[in-house]
Amino acid sequence: MGKTRGRRYLAPIALAGVFGLVLTGCAEGGSDTPGASGSAGGTVRISGGITGSEADLLQQSFDGFTKDTGIEVVYTGDKGFEGNIVTKVTGGDAPDLAIVPQPGLLKTLIGTGDVVKAPSAVDKAVDENWSPDWKAYGTVDGTFYAAPMLANVKGYVWYSPAKFKEWGVEVPKTWDDLLTLTKTIQEKSGAAPWCAGFESGNASGWPGTDWIEDLVLRQSGTGVYDDWVAGKVKFTDQPIADAFTAAGKILLNPSYVNAGFGDVKSINSTAFADVAAKVADGTCALTHQASFLSSNFLDVKTADGKAPTVAPDGDVYAFVLPGMQEGESQIEAGGEFVAAFNDNEATQKVQEFMTSADFANARVKLGGVISANKKADPSNASSEFLTDAMKLLQDEKTTVRFDASDLMPATVGSGSFWKGMVDWIDGKDQATVLSDIQAGYNN
Question: Does the pLDDT at position 96 exceed 80?
Fold first, then answer.
């Protein structure tokens, strides 16, 4: 997730560089590894919203760095990070570093006066290893604060290639094809084809915003999308209402959701990552989720009790949510940024390490992720899917826009928009939901 959340509008991403999913890497030494000689010592605390097995890999990725520098890195994952970090910072309990999942939240943290400017070594490394757009997302009012760390490709539809073959269906080329596919699977299987989960603690509702953002981009184009991000197009305007209506053809249809979990309202009580298990065991035919869902398949089993293979001819794979016209290639992306709350030597060394190509490549090799670092090699990815995702983002023909909710003011993007998605699933009138979300700009 992430760009600059306030009213400030940044130019759209036109990437030739690589995005990535969950970053970090285990230092293997080498000229790109800062602090490889000598011993700085000390402990650096990092806080973020990465939890579970991904948090374990994130912590593991610092083992080599600790060995080289003597600096111990302690990562603490918090499922309610977005709602808790500002309180901790203003209450005097800030970590040394925070992995911030939205530029809007980053701007809020910078507004407390506690985030320190990125050191020159980090500034230089980001110039070398990321596209200018990524640096801009960590910059507020002309000052660079936070280096990019995570990125993910949004707008994937996960499915079972074997089931598609069994049903005699193919990957759809347009949005209308997707609706036809949904109807066909429902008729052939006699069950709801889609599963969805909007539950994410204090961040509940965010998976729904991805649906809307994808559809605004596909239905109304980049101009409307950019104006929506900038606040020039309101949630109550027709293009946004049209996106909700389109998403509702799937998410509000009791014949189409919520496979393996219940009815439409069960979407709000289903954890966003839990859909992976239902796709893997064949209970759910389709789910809309970002590239990072690939890491969740590492922890689930197929109906045969084995780990699912993620491949075009495997147990699960994914296609990009199609556009209105065949051949369109439009991608929404998200990411995270590393902000510091002090300028201690140890903190700065960790910051610099986290911008290195060694770090990015090593984390990619650990599995389940891709890296935003331009010097990261797609061949290091742990699956064909992740390699494809990285290459997709490197393709200059791909239209890329950053996650809209992450660019909006926090009162909207991670406030009224998230809440509005939950209310919409719960059955609140769409016009009222849109009005309620727009009201977040007044808070």
Answer: yes
